[in-house]
Amino acid sequence: LYRDRIILVGSFLDEEACNNLIATLLYLKFDNIHKPISIYFNSPGALIKPCLAVYDTIQTLPCPVSTVNLGLSTGLGAFLCGAGTKGMRYALPNARFLMQRTGLDDPYQGQASDIGLVVKENLRDNDRVERGLAQMTGQSLETVKRDMQRDFYLSSHEAVQYGLIDKVLIPQTMAPPGMGIPGIATSGMGLAA
Q: Which of 166, 153, 148 minimizes the C-alpha distance to 91?
């Protein structure tokens, strides 16, 4: 897949997964700074700090980055789906997005003053994500903050209306009638607004 500049993110994005994703993005950047990179997501979520590093990397790439939600993108996985190049952010028809604030990565123990610092840092990171969502969706920061107070589910079509993605990919059967497997696309994906 890397030869075709395609990256599949199909697991939880922890430090190791994010470092690997960043390394692959940087490799593909230096391989050809003009050719698009495609990232396909089906992610149950991510840790906030490593994911913000992936977001920053995507935002600084000179080449276009296409993102596609294949199934369920949760939390910062949904955030990264929206981080692609405007006009190149997609989802399959049955894909879902779950946008939510991120809690502490691990149970934290220590002095009350240290716990307060960790909580303050987590709130600051969530604010960064909300500001990023407002920028990428065109929604007001107040709207994004209100929507993120609880789990916020979006279908692929609702994600287009919200501004998180640009288009829904609709499978199209290209085989002549009677050929191919019913309900399965035999070639390509079409675009629908």
A: 166
Which residues, other chains included, contact 71 with Cβ-Cβ below 8 Å and sequence gap of 6+?
42, 92, 94, 95, 96
Residue identified by tokens 């050809």 is 32
Residue-level length of the chain: 193
Give the Å distances, CA to CA, from 153 to 62, 74, 100, 147, 173. Answer: 31, 9, 9, 10, 29
Buried b (16+ CB within 10 A) or exposed e, 157-173: eebbebbbbbbbbeeeb
pLDDT digits (tens, 9 = 90+) for 81-121: 999 999 999 999 999 999 987 765 566 667 777 777 777 87
Which residues are within 8 A (CB) of 57 and not within 5 positions of it... i.e. 6 or more apart?
Answer: 22, 25, 26
pTM score, whole prediction:
0.81
| Alpha-carbon dihedral 88, 6, 22, 43, rounded to 10 degrees | 80
**What's the rounded Cα separation, in Å, for the pair 118 and 141?**
24
Quick: pLDDT tens for 50-75.
999 999 999 999 999 999 999 999 99
DSSP β-ladder status, 189-192 and 167-171:
antiparallel
